Task: structure prediction
Amino acid sequence: MAPKIMLVGVSVCDIILVVPEISKPGDIVYLDRGITISLGGHPCNISVDLVKLGYSSSLIYVVSAIGNDFCGKFIEETLSSYSLQLNLVKIPGVGSNKNVIVVVKGEDRRFHVEVGASMHMQSKDVIRLVEEVKPGLIHLAVGLLGDVDTNLQNVLAASHNVGAVTFVDVGAPRPYGKADWRFLIESLKYADIFHANRYELQNVFGVEDIFDGIKKALATGAKIVVVTDGERGAYIAKDNYVIYQKAFKVDVVDPTGAGDAFQAGLIYKLVELAGDKFSRSYIEGIGYDELAEILLFSQAVGAVCVTQPGTTTAVSRENVENLLKKQRDEVMKSIKRMRIL
Result:
């Protein structure tokens, strides 16, 4: 039986603008694609993507905080429509997290975030849920979680105590309410899987070179390190080597949610390959060929995501399989395996 998956992080009401250009002060730009209001936030996007890939919603637990407002109601109703197992704490007197995302063709996204309910999450509540649910895998997207960030080591240690595989993601380019990423770096000794994009990796470890960042992440004790680099491809590292794959070629409409889709693909493929052997010991012994397959599938899910507006709109197992059928061989031929330690 597939393991229970617990996803902890920020739930967000995303307002997405796909624009040909940024308007000049006092001027106007008319939008052909319109403005999309959609569900956002790492646990929300990943959970929905997992369901769309075929994972049972009865095994997916979403742990987050929302405000008692329109956006909170929208987040809760949208997640409920997928029959997910919801643990949404409603924070009185505080608004839900909101994010205005401006997407200019050919440029990276611009985020404008109102930080709300997520900063009021409590680590003791997360630990209590971990002990009750006993998930096979827990995913935490950190940086905007207040007390959960502060006590990240305790949450991860409690997760290990129940046998869970721990997956830690950098949930923001900069942590909110903290001077630096020290709390994360000191906690990675408890991370079985660590993910960041290139920009986040550079910010966390203060290095420019992507391989230097991967080395530093592995040196903290993280077992598997995954780095996404947009249209330049992705890396997965374990022990003393790193695997690189180039990206799939797709028409990019909206890159929002691509990193979350990638991680949903990683979780899905990891569970699929492990089968009844899914465990922390399986992660420790996983081999080169399996990591390459996981990276391929993860990239395909991330690539499919960007082909339509919205964080989860385009994701489906059918779309992913169609993309793999067309480009699998080409991407696999690009694989490079390099020793780094």
Observations:
- The chain has a mean pLDDT of 94.
